[in-house]
Structure formats: C-alpha cells, structure tokens
Amino acid sequence: MSWTRKLLRVNLSNGTVTEEALNMQWANDYLGQRGLATRYMVEETDPACDPLGPDNKLIMATGPLTGTMASTGGRYSVICKSPLTNAIACSNSGGFFGAELKFAGWDMVIFEGRAASPMYLSIENEKASLLPADDLWGKSVWEADKVLRTKHQDPQTRIACVGRSAEQGCLYAAVVNDLHRAAGRSGVGTVMASKNLKAVVVRGTLGIGNVENPEAFMSATKAGKAVLAENAVTGQGLPAYGTQVLMNVINEVGALPTRNMRETQFEGAANVSAEAMLEPRKSDGKPNLTTNGACYACTIACGRISTIDRTHFSVKDKPEYWINSGGLEYEAAWALGPDTGVDDIDALTYVNFLCNEDGMDPISLGSTIAAAMELFESGAITTAQTDGVELKFGSAEALCWAAEVTAKGEGFGRDIGLGSKRLCEKYGRPEFSMTVKGQEFPAYDPRGIQGMGLAYATSNRGACHLRGYTVASEILGIPEKTDPLESDGKAGLVKAFQDATAAVDSAGLCVFTTFAWTMDDIAPQVDAACEGDWSTDRMMEVGERIWNMEREYNAKAGLTGADDNLPARLVSEPANVGPAAGRVSELDKMLPEYYAARGWTSDGSVTVETHSRLGLPG
Amino acid sequence: MQITFKLYATLGDLLPSNAVRNVASIDVPEGASLNSIIDKYHVPRELAHLVLINGVFVCDADRDQSGMLKEGDVLAIWPPVAGG
User: Fold this and answer.
1) pLDDT band at B84 (very low <50, low <70, confident <90, very high)
2) Chain A residues 516-555 with CB within 8 Å of chain B
3) Domain B2-78 part of CATH 3.10.20.30
4) Which one of A271, A327, A487, B57 is CB 3.0 to 4.6 Å from A343, fit for a cystine?
C-alpha cells in the first residue's frame, strides 16, 4: 500500500479539521503527490476561480514512497491554482517535512476557504488542530519557526511556513520547510498566506508500516541505492559540487542567459560557480561552502550549506546573517547572478538567505530584478521609483536592496513582488518580461538549448526547467547525448521527459535520481511498496495522464495554445555569442510536432480520443 | 600552438600550476588529438565525459582525430556532472 489511505481536510472558513479516506481509485490512476492532488483540484475547484480567493484550495501532498527508505523518499508538493500564472501550480520540496507528515499518518492535507484571522495547523499523529497565529503574522519564516519550536517543545517537530513576502502579496512567495527547503515556484506561498494560514507544524511517530511487500521493497531500494552510489553524477559530482557545477558548463556552451536574457554568456560566471564556492576567502580563509546536505532518506546529498563573508557590505553590521543556511543552487545563483549581471558571490548568497528567511522564489525574484534593471536602464523607471537607488545591471548593492524591500513588501519592493510580467506591463515595456504564462525563466537559454524552448513554452506551470529537463540529454548526455542546437527530434524528447517527471513527482521521489535511474529502476520500488502492478509502462502512462489532466485544468482556467509561447526576444533576437550565435529558438517548428506527439489538436487542445484513451476526468 | 585548456569539478587539480580559476594556457603540437591532451594531463578517459571545443561537444569517436584543434581554441572538459 504505502499510502496511509487517509487525508486531512481543513476548512479554514469554519475552523473544522476532519479525517477522510483517500480516494484509492484515484491513487491507482494518479499515484500520489502531484498527480493525485491535482486530481482532487480538478474535482473540487473551479479552474476559473480567483487564485487568491477562498474558492482556491491548497494541498500539501506526499507520494507513496515519501517517508520510506527509498533513496530521496522525503518529497512533498504544494498544489493549488497559481496567482502568478493562473494555471495549476505544483511546487515540490525536500527536507524532512514531507516524511514527517507521512509518519503522522497522512497522505495529504487539503486546505479550503479562508480563516478570519491568522492561524496555523498543528498535527501530532491523529490529533490535528487549528491554532491562532496572530503572534506569528508579520514575522519571517525564521522568526516564526523559532516561536513555534518554543511553543511545541519537541526538537523533532517539522515546520512549513510562509514569510513576510507572502503576507505582503508577493506573487512568487514560497512555502519554506525546515528553514531553507522550499516549495518555491508559482506563488504557492502567496496562496497559503491568502488563506490566513501562516504555518503547518507536524510531528509523527507512527512510521511507515504499510509497505505492500517489505522484502521486495528492501531489495528494490537497495538496488536503487547501489545505482545512485556507483553513478559518477549522483555518487560523486552532485555531493561534491552540487547543482552549481552547471554554472561554467552552461556558460561554456553559450546558453547562460545574461542581463535579462539579452546575452548568452556571462563574463563573471566563474566568480559565482561551484568551483568559486570552494575557494578560501581573504577575510577568514574559509570557503563559501561549509558542507553538503541531504534531505530525508537521500543518498545523493546535493544540498549546499553556506556562509557569507562577515566583512561583506551586505552583512557586516548584521550578525544575524553570520550563520550557515541553505546556499546557492544553480538556478538561484543564475537568476541572482548572471541574469542581473552581478558576479559577487557573497551578495548572491545574502539574497539567497533572504529568500530562505522570507520565502521568496529566487528564480522569479532574480529574473524580476533583472527586468527592473532593464526598465531602469531604458528610462522606463527612474530613481523616483527606486528610492534613489541606481538599479543598474551589475550592481550588487542594488540587487541586495531590491531583495530586501521585496522580502518586506516595502516601497518599490511591492512592484518587484508583482513578478516580471506585471512589472513590465505596469511600466509600459512588456517586451522586457522574460516569462511564459507569467512565470519567469530558469537558467537555460532556449536559443542555445533548443529542447528547453519547447519545454518552457509547453510547461503546465509556466517557464520551468523541472517539468521537462532536456538539458540532461542536450548538454549533459543523460541518458544519451543529443545536439542542443538541433530542433529535430526535440518534440518527442520533451514529451518523454515531461511524462517521466510527472510520474517521479507523484511517487515521492526526487527528480535528481533520474540522472542515474531510469524508470526501470523506479518502477520496482513503487511496485514493491504499493498494491497492484506498477510496471515501467504503467508509470509512463500515469505520467502522461497527469500531464494531460494538468493541461485540461489549465484550458478550463482560460489558457490556450496561444499561451505556449516564448518572449519575442528569444524567437527573433539571435544569440550574440558562443556556439548558438546567430540562432533563435525554433519553437514555431517544434510546437506542431509536439502537439502531434501528444495527440492534441493543431491548436493545442486535448482531443476527445486522447482524453478517452487516458481515462481523464470529466 | 597555444590553446586555452579548462578542467572543471574533480578534474581541476590536474591543470598545470599556472592555471587560474580552472583555466590554463597550454602549448600543444600541431595536429594533436584531444585524447593525446587528455592523456598528457592524466585525465582519466572515463572521466572526460563532457568535452567541448569552443563550447561545442566532441563525441568519443572523434577524440582520436588530429586536426580538431586550431590556434586559440578553447578545450574544456568536465567529468559526468548534472544539476538543475
């Protein structure tokens, strides 16, 4: 089984907390976490609802392998309708919160309605209650975590929380758990705050006692761990260098978006790379990186734990930041660094800490600041808006200021909190917004990595690398090398990555395992844990079903094939340097091929035949 | 001829002592194959996973060919790495 077969329904409007049986038919069709929670969203919400209104729901969901001994089996996701994109949102997080929720006996928690005043949910195994959070409102994630720990007096308590940015309506606020892990993208934290829900505190001691076939599960998970340990990426590269090892790679191949994606290589990339994080600094002889870290049950341990140089201008008078916290991961380092033209690793780490402290998605924050910098340099905004700050590309001081005011929702920070699309529209230059469906791009330029342009354009949650990471194939040669400058064959590649990722995201596992694991490694673990037969083919079918269900949800929310697009800059302004020089994204060629591969109409709608073949709801 | 040679991640220590931030300028014979350079600097071939000339990937089968490099080229090599 591995599912606990129970969910908790929390109605914030009337203050009720009730236990409910998990719909096992849906679990069989959608597995768990991303897929299963989206199935509940389809059933229970109007896709056209106001994302920040009481009719939207927010679901914290685990997968069947969450909390088990499967490597990386500690994931949970936050699912809701996004205020940034108006599309379905699903943000996945590691740490220890998801496993603890499972240990307490719950597959998922559904929040509905809106509380009249700030509340938090406390879960101790079967006992769950809504408690006042007036004293927590206005506090950062870190401050609230401290208060809640003092109240609950259990060091094993796990906490997921929103910060001040969410309370202030920043549209890309995250839900932060375990102080520095985050369900980061699409504004899921903003939705949580809109419900007057500050935090979820969970303690579980029930463990996982319902694995379908324990002996087979022990064998399958042991085999999986051996594959991860023996693979050079998951066994050596990721623990030693983290995701940040990509900074120099992506720069070298000429696909590192720079200064709001105007350029494709950054002269300062080496200064903010994984290698730079290991260099001793002059002030104290210590490197930026303190150690690597692992989430629950993870045998890869790619996480970065870092410190900021205490003599750096950003923190020299702020000893509260002289700590170890979650350090720079590649996507965050790119958005805060090359995309803003800043190559000061301590400034980037400081802003990353602010994202941890107050729950902001660093990708959207950095990209939006980059757009603001282009607005400033074009004259669309001036120092009159920025409180006198020269918001120029390359200014570490401006970057730190912008992040500080956004975290607290002060002054121009409220504009930055709108996200790139709304910010650029407000100041009359929508073409400066590097977004798809209103969500900011991650760290790969589609002019230099053609498959990623299609993956961004068709992602169900807006521009995102984690919905179809064709970089693995196009750049890194996993599972096999394809040419990043070639658009032929990318439609099928994108579809395969999208479907596989949807299945992995619904199992409770981390997608980073797929640098070593294929579905043939994952399916036996799910099969041993869960009732029924879970073959590779069934996992891929579940992934495809989930993808199409998300697509249909978005269609009912008002999105169409016309939203499967890229900013004009990427399809009409050629890359300026590197191997991709002179090229644009060939989205117009790939998109019809992709629709055909998906079995959709030429305008991107799910056909009746595909809907019926996959057994989709409605 | 002079080329720019870059070794990253776990390979960084194999660069000559004049390297700065994973980058060195090295002298190679005209017509040198990539594998001859890889071997000269003791890069284990199984770890020469991502091999780029001026940012463009060179597949395993082409690494023994001579004439792949010209004066001023950039040869960059990574072991198997990933991120995201």
Assistant:
1) confident
2) none
3) yes
4) A271
